[in-house]
Amino acid sequence: RKEVEQDPGPFNVPEGATVAFNCTYSNSASQSFFWYRQDCRKEPKLLMSVYSSGNEDGRFTAQLNRASQYISLLIRDSKLSDSATYLCVVSSMDSSYKLIFGSGTRLLVRP
Amino acid sequence: DGGITQSPKYLFRKEGQNVTLSCEQNLNHDAMYWYRQDPGQGLRLIYYSQIVNDFQKGDIAEGYSVSREKKESFPLTVTSAQKNPTAFYLCASSIPVNSGGTDTQYFGPGTRLTVL
Q1: Is B42 within 8 Å of A103 when comparing Cβ atoms?
Q2: Could you tell me if B91 and B109 are in contact, meaning their C-beta atoms sit under 8 angstroms apart?
Q3: Residue A47, pLDDT above cutoff 80
Q4: Among B103, B106, B111, which would you mutate to test the A interface (most chain A Cβ atoms within 10 Å of its Cβ)?
Q5: Average pLDDT estimate for B51-78
Q6: The pLDDT of residue B83
Q7: Chain B residue with Cα closest to A51
Q8: Which residues of A touch B103 (CB under 8 A)?
Q9: Which of A68, A74, A109, B49 could be B68's S-S partner, Cβ–Cβ 3.0 to 4.6 Å?
Q10: What pLDDT score does B35 carry?
Q11: How far is CA A99 from CA A77, A108, B48, B93, B103, in A?
Q12: Listed range (A20-34, A54-68, B86-100) with the worst mean pLDDT
């Protein structure tokens, strides 16, 4: 079983739609959780950290469910510029220095 | 401007040659990392360094070497022993939690290596 699992997609949605991604992780001791965004042939960039209480940043909402070991990302009112791959990231069981990256979920927002 | 720089952006190498990828940061971060990304796959950790003059192997260290002589610099050498070196190489840095940071890693723009 992979340490971090994501549906690769692609999720193909119209502008203005709401879309949700889920991610599951295997290490119950993980403490840090993130969503990164990666555009084609570019480096990953931090989208948001994920806290136990959930957090919201504009149109983006992230939630953590420790009991079920999954993380979610909700994007409301999708824009064309949201088209990218979204990486779920979890801290390693070995050390807080190491992060484990999911393979990503690809989102395509169409006009 | 603070940030992480990687050079070159594109690199072509003949089979059997060693090549060194540069990574420099002026964020004053203690920890630095090297990842490899293959098409359609997630990032895999090659090497990481928590402090100057110290580094540890990641999950796929075979065929690679690193050095950390300065806080700002963490070069990666891809040796001829690496069987399939063509990939996108990403360098990152962070301030670890036990140093007052948040574990968030910030990435350079990457180097795309192609072996001919």
Answers
A1: yes
A2: no
A3: yes
A4: B103
A5: 95
A6: 87
A7: B102
A8: 32, 91, 96-97, 99
A9: B49
A10: 97
A11: 30, 26, 11, 12, 8
A12: B86-100
